[in-house]
Write a structure and sequence with these properties.
The chain has about 525 residues and is mainly β. The protein has one helix and 39 strands. Strand 19 and strand 20 form a beta hairpin. The chain is globular. The N terminus is likely disordered.
């Protein structure tokens, strides 16, 4: 393993200071792509990420620095990474298999490896089952945080890779399994979809099964296939399922489509449910992309259900740019404290070529409206000869939001995250109060010492405080003290508060109004 310290590297000084959402390199060894990420709700400083084929990464400081390792298992490791975390803070890394030497079919099982702490001490793993002939692919998992039962769904192919020409008798189905003992053993898989797909790994194949849990322990899952987007649910922890799948939406153009510069692209769905105490608790959301508006106008979509998945809203467009641009590879999560929905996707709204940014969207009203914002610091140009993976990912808890995505620079793939600054989401930071103002600290970046200036246009009670990237108060330079009209400059000594290197915010608060600026501490 090697330590990657990037958050305070000199080459990123200006980017860190000027960007609203600081980008951090997670890893760039071994051409990583198709990433996954998970925040530990018990301690949001602890984050684990993974990438194809066999990379894992962990952070103990909220994503500012990362340690990288290579995942190993006697069952083999072959991509499609998915990371979840239980209520004890144990992480689970799901992936495909690739036994060496081979035994039976390639990718013949879904493997789950467990780490009881954030630092990547992974078990050898367990697996859901082995058919011996058929392929097990495209898995995803979720934890019911009421009882720590783990649910996993995936696609089973009769043949994969599919023969050419395809055998019409071969089919793909959605399987479900669960573990009630922390991933040690798994139930015998059951088929949950009623309409099988083919094995072509395209529009008529059943794929994209992402399970989620409802507020009363319901298990919900949707997928794409020959009939469009379909949904199923279990009200008894996966013992029984609906007699018939529920139709959610068509997918005009299919889920398998072409994006210039991308080796292959898909619009497979992501399912999530609001478990917060927000007004939208219990709402089920499905997020996907498709080309219903044309092959040069791929869009991000959302449908929701407020009655347990029995009925679904019409598809609503998440990206808010003018028509005619490409948005693709979406993922969605719900902050289970606030009930806010967060989306991450690649976006070309700013260009007329294959230059690609990374955008996010947030909905604070149950998926009725969306605010879009760019999180990547610079665009990249993908290479169609370089496999880019099949998805992005995002995790959020209590206003800590960490997306993850792959980026291509000439000859190099890497995965990155962003320290999403929630103070910029839907806030016009140029609308300053009339009775006071706050200047940018100087110097910035700074080593130990800097100076902060503010001006009062009338006498007021004032507080001047410093916060970390998670909104925790780190220093109170002025605490509700009376100041007269005038300009003031205050010296800030980071050593006095034992602050490590990183991004911080300082705020002036007066008369229930607040102004905030960002600063960067180096040591």
């Amino acid at each position: 393993m090697r330590k990657i310290i990037l958050a305070v590297a000199a080459i990123f000084f200006l980017t860190l200071v000027n960007a609203q959402h600081t980008n951090v390199l997670i890893g760039d060894q071994g051409y990583p792509e198709e990433p996954t990420i998970m925040i530990n709700p018990k301690n949001t400083n602890e984050i684990v990420a993974g990438a194809n084929i066999d990379k894992y990464y962990y952070s103990k400081d909220g994503g500012l620095t990362w340690t990288e390792g290579t995942l190993a298992s006697s069952y083999g490791v072959w991509g499609d990474p998915c990371i979840i975390v239980d209520t004890a803070g144990s992480f689970y890394f799901f992936h495909l298999s690739d036994l060496d030497p081979p035994a039976g079919n390639w990718i013949d099982r879904i493997v789950c490896q467990k780490a009881d702490s954030v630092d990547g001490q992974w078990s050898d793993g367990s697996y859901t089952w082995v058919d011996g002939i058929k392929a097990q692919d495209k898995e995803w998992a979720v934890v019911d945080r009421n009882n720590n039962i783990i649910y996993v769904t995936w696609t089973q192919f009769d043949k994969y890779p599919f023969p050419i020409p395809a055998d019409p008798t071969d089919s793909s189905i959605i399987l479900f399994s669960r573990s009630i003992d922390g991933g040690q053993t798994w139930s015998v898989p059951v088929r949950i979809n009623k309409i099988a797909g083919d094995c072509v790994d395209s529009d008529n194949t059943t794929e994209g099964a992402v399970p989620t849990v409802g507020p009363n322990g319901e298990v919900y899952v949707a997928w794409a296939g020959p009939e469009g987007l379909l949904f199923d649910k279990s009200l008894d922890s996966g013992n029984t399922w609906l007699d018939n799948d529920i139709f959610v939406s068509d997918i005009p153009g299919g889920w398998d489509y072409t994006i210039s510069g991308i080796n292959r692209c898909n619009g497979l769905p992501v399912t999530a449910c609001d478990l917060s105490n927000s007004p939208y608790k219990g709402t089920i959301y499905i997020n996907w992309t498709d080309q219903r508006n044309g092959t040069t106008d791929t869009d991000v979509w959302l449908s929701k259900s407020t009655d347990g998945g029995n009925t679904w809203s019409a598809a609503k467009r998440v990206n808010d740019d003018v028509p005619g641009k490409q948005q693709f590879f979406t993922w969605m999560t719900v902050d289970q404290v606030t009930g806010y929905l967060y989306f991450v996707f690649y976006d070309r709204r700013n260009y007329n070529d294959t230059r690609t940014d990374v955008y996010m969207a947030v909905s604070k009203d149950g998926g009725e409206t969306f605010a879009n914002f760019k999180i990547s610091n610079s665009p990249f140009i993908p290479d169609e000869d370089v496999f880019f993976g099949d998805y992005t990912n995002i995790s959020a808890f209590n206003n800590v939001i960490r997306p993850v995505w792959a980026r291509y620079d000439p000859g190099q793939l890497s995965i990155l995250t962003a320290i999403v600054d929630t103070s910029f989401l839907g806030v016009n930071n140029h609308d300053e109060p009339e009775d006071f103002s706050l200047e940018q600290n100087a110097p910035n970046p700074f080593v130990e010492n800097t100076y902060i200036g503010f001006k009062l246009h009338k006498p007021a009670l004032v507080s001047l405080k410093v916060y970390d990237i998670f909104g925790r108060e780190m220093a109170a330079m002025i605490n509700n003290e009376k100041y007269n009209t005038g300009k003031y400059i205050r010296h800030f000594d980071a050593a006095q508060y034992n602050l490590p290197s990183g991004v911080y915010y300082f705020s002036i608060i007066s008369n229930e109004k607040m102004l905030t600026r960002k600063m960067l501490l180096l040591k």
